[in-house]
Amino acid sequence: xxRPRAVADxxxxxxxxxxxxxxxxxxxxxxxxxxxxxxxxxxxxxxxARIRVTKAALTPFLAAALTLGLxxxxxxxxxxxxxxxxxxxxxxxxxxxxxxxxSAYFTIRNTGGSNDELVSVSTPVTTDVMLSFHTYTxxxxxxxxxxxxxxxxxxxxxxxxxxxxxxxxxxxxxxxxGDHVTFTLRFRHSAPVTATAVVVAPGTWAPSxxx
Length: 211
Fold this sequence. Notes:
The protein is of the alpha+beta class and 211 residues long. The chain has two helices and ten strands, in the order H-H-E-E-E-E-E-E-E-E-E-E.
């Protein structure tokens, strides 16, 4: 019978008790040592909590700073419009050639940075007041009633017989050349303006200073 052969220990200085501890520690799972706590992931722990709190606090601040920067750019490039600033001049009413109707005209300048609209007009001489404009196809023209006439920013609304104007129904009293008629003009965004128009014969007066 062959006897088992003794095999020399390749590490005669090995400590059996230490090996026993190593075997036991290996059962704790990866990343663990006996007598130590598990290794924390980067997303846990007090430091990670402080980072999350800091990020949450900075988010609204950064959003506000970005918004302010965009508004500053918008304003400095001239895109932030100032309110409309209107002036009304050149008021005149045509001496009626038709006893039932006539028309009034004004030049409305807007030196502000925002558009506006003329939305209504009233006058003591008649209750029948409408805003109108004309369109043309070749030599054929057509008049339209409208609820508003535009007044562009840094521009003007120049009323003419062949363009935009104010239609007046039957006057309460007879109008004569040289009479002055009071009007109240109301706008979409600006305060109402009271202006005076002079009665003139058609074709005898033209507004001055149109630019």
